[in-house]
Amino acid sequence: MGELTGVLIHEISQPLAAIDNYISGCIARLASGSFSPEELIEALRLAHRETSRAGSITSSIRSFLQGQATRREVVDVNDVVRSVVPLIELKANLAACHVRVELCSDDMLTRADAVLLRQVLLNLVFNAAESIDSSASDTPRERLIVVSTDRDAGWVHLNVADDGPGLPDVGHDLLFESFFTTKAEGLGLGLSLCRTVVESFGGSISASTGHGVTRFEASMPAVNLSPTPASPGSAS
């Protein structure tokens, strides 16, 4: 029960923070007297979407951690990325960094729970933004996060790269262990949940640092929905 509570607190904090930012922005615009109805409507629409997402997160994570069957269906990884771009950009703006999204033009289909896969992506992006924001460096950097997708034989890949200070000097396995964190107020559950979720989809997640770039890659089995060509000589 303690782990379930900790994970839910960790994951629900994301939509709650987004709702707070959208509502705060609306209040500031109304107080200034300089606003357009269209801007307020859009901000409130995004806030409302986050309330719905919070409910979906709670349901999916509770079922997942309690060992119940999660809803796995064919999802387009590119669509998952597109669905959270507003949240990614909001987090990047707060951390004074930039985001670039590079989506593969090939089919990026896999079998997964879309809600949980979004949480994997958001955890990786939010970690990247917080790492950049908390680091002090005399070396000029772009303060850039790149979210990309690609595909090779039998696998689809979801990647998050940043030019922050790099990974802590610990082993790869420890990085993904529950309750390991380098954040003063962190729970150490984000990367652990990412690995558990991706592995439940039949995939894997890895992390690397090199040439001033930290990169996380989630790889999952590709699904091919293209019709299989009829074999030569088959009956028509």
Termini separation (Å)?
58 Å
Elements, N to C (H/E)? HHEHHEEHEEHHEE
Strand content: 15-25%
Total number of domains: 1
Largest sheet: number of strands, sense, barrel closure: 5 strands, mixed
The CATH class is: Alpha Beta
Please give the structural blueprint.
Layout: H1 2-32, H2 37-65, E1 73-76, H3 77-83, H4 85-94, E2 98-102, E3 109-112, H5 114-134, E4 144-152, E5 155-162, H6 172-175, H7 190-200, E6 204-210, E7 213-221
Parallel strand pairs: 2-4
Antiparallel strand pairs: 1-3, 4-5, 5-7, 6-7
Helix pairs in contact: 1-2, 3-5, 4-5, 5-7
Describe what this molecule looks like in 3D:
By secondary structure, the protein is α+β, with helices and mostly antiparallel strands. The protein has one domain (2-221): Histidine kinase-like ATPase, C-terminal domain (Heat Shock Protein 90, 2-Layer Sandwich), CATH 3.30.565.10. It contains seven helices and seven strands; from the N terminus they run ααβααββαββααββ. It has helices spanning 2-32, 37-65, 77-83, 85-94, 114-134, 172-175, 190-200, and strands at residues 73-76, 98-102, 109-112, 144-152, 155-162, 204-210, 213-221. The protein has a five-stranded mixed beta sheet with strand order 2-4-5-7-6. α1 (2-32) runs antiparallel to α2 (37-65), α4 packs parallel to α5 and α5 (114-134) runs antiparallel to α7. It is globular. It starts with a helix and ends in a 15-residue tail after the last strand. The model is unreliable at 179-188 (pLDDT under 50).
